[in-house]
Amino acid sequence: MPARKPPERRKRGRPAGGSDDLVRAILHAALDQLGRRGYAALTIDGVARVACVNKTTVYRRWPTKGELIIAAVIACRESRPRFVPTGRLRDDLISLLRDKARAVSTPRQRAISCAINTLDPSVGAALAKELRRRRYTVPRDVLDEAVARGELAPDTDTAFLTQLLLAPIFYRTLVLRETIPDEVIVHTVDTVLDGARRGRGWKGPALASKRLS
Q1: Dist. CA 162–CA 112, nearest whole Å
Q2: Are residue 54 and residue 87 in the same domain, yes or no?
Q3: What is the DSSP code string of 126-166?
Q4: What are phi and psi of 157, to 5 degrees?
Q5: In this structure, are 42 and 98 located in the same domain?
Q6: Total number of domains in the chain
């Protein structure tokens, strides 16, 4: 019986499972270091150490830490389940805000979200552009569909309504560092929808013209 060949030792820089696992390990480490250290103190060398890869492996894919962080944030977004609307506007918005509240309320995600606000201006602008390009616009898409159904007025400023819906979530979690009671979510949705329906024809300020996620 032939002798069994000893298993090959995995080289540093090549996590088991191939390149997909390698990329996931690097991007997860990048977000972890962003939350722990902040953008200014984050280094590609440090990310490589946490991901157990060679730094050249990271540099080959993302030459700058700005590109690395943008890729990590996008990958995190894309890993989340896509929301499937039911066509019931109020129920869909409540469900979306509940999901958002859960997502940003964990200590890790709260730290990451705060750190994203400290990105270099050029990196922050590039990240916002990439998010808009990929149309990460929930709950605006749900509001747009309500306009198309005739449930909201044709000239409803859905970008501004999106800001009104999301602002309490981010303020309570990132500024006040509080949990978000479900009644706050329900009250937010009801207040915004009531205002939108009462103010038919009213448009928000020019600031709301950009698509926000």
Answers
A1: 22
A2: no
A3: HHHHHHHHTT--TTHHHHHHHHHHTSS-TT--HHHHHHHHH
A4: -85, 85
A5: no
A6: 2
Over residues 11-35, the pLDDT tens digits come to: 443 444 348 889 999 999 999 999 9
Residues 44-61 have a mean pLDDT of 95
Question: What phi, psi does 52 have (nearest 5°)?
Answer: 60, 45
Residues 92, 157 within the same domain = yes
Query: Which class for 48: exposed (0-12), middle (13-18), buried (19 or more C-beta within 10 A)?
Result: buried
Crossing angle for the helix pair 65-79 and 121-133, to the nearest 10 degrees: 30
Residue 96 CB burial class (10 angstroms; 0-12, 13-18, ≥19):
buried
pTM above 0.90, yes or no: no
Alpha carbon 189 to its chain's center:
21
Identify the pLDDT of residue 69: 96
Amino acid at the residue 166: L
Host domain of residue 42 = 19-77
Distance CA(97)–CA(74), nearest Å, equals 20
Q: What is the pLDDT of residue 9?
A: 42
